[in-house]
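Q: What residues go here?
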């Protein structure tokens, strides 16, 4: 389909260039006066297409995507395969895999266990957090002499 489109567009371009050549040659016969106030207002004729250009389906000014500098077909294949692997496999499937990974840090388990412990303490009528969570005998506080003039903000 694209080859047919290219063939048709080149045929139309060839017909236009021939028509412009004929019109341009007839304009040389009669000289006209330019009445436009604009200095740069001109008609630009498209570049003429020769039969060699029409017969050659490869474009002359091919710009590589950077994968292959010798052949256009290899360059396009490498470009498409690279973007397929990068976008489809890495981004799409990588995101899907990462989103549905199991909970490796056991966050859900810890949260459920915390809620179960809170419910058990509420039903037992015990404080939710024990005031003696850390044994007071194991805490070593500095003496008043060590603190001296240090301001203590509570």
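A:
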């Amino acid at each position: 389909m694209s080859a047919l489109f290219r063939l048709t567009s080149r045929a139309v371009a060839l017909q236009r260039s021939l028509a412009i050549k004929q019109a341009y040659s007839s304009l040389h016969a009669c000289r006209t006066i330019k009445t436009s106030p604009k200095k740069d207002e001109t008609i630009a004729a498209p570049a003429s297409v020769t039969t060699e250009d029409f017969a050659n389906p490869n474009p002359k000014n091919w710009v590589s995507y950077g994968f292959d500098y010798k052949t256009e077909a290899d360059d396009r294949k490498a470009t498409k395969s690279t973007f397929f692997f990068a976008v489809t496999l890495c981004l799409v499937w990588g995101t899907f895999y990462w989103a549905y990974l199991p909970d490796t840090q056991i966050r859900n388990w810890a949260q459920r266990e915390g809620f179960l412990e809170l419910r058990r303490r509420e039903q037992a009528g015990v404080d939710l957090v024990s005031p003696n969570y850390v044994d007071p005998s194991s805490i070593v506080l500095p003496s008043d002499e060590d603190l001296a003039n240090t301001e203590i903000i509570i």
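A: Context that may help when evaluating the design: The mean pLDDT is 79. Helices lie at 2-29, 51-55, 72-99, 107-124, 144-147.
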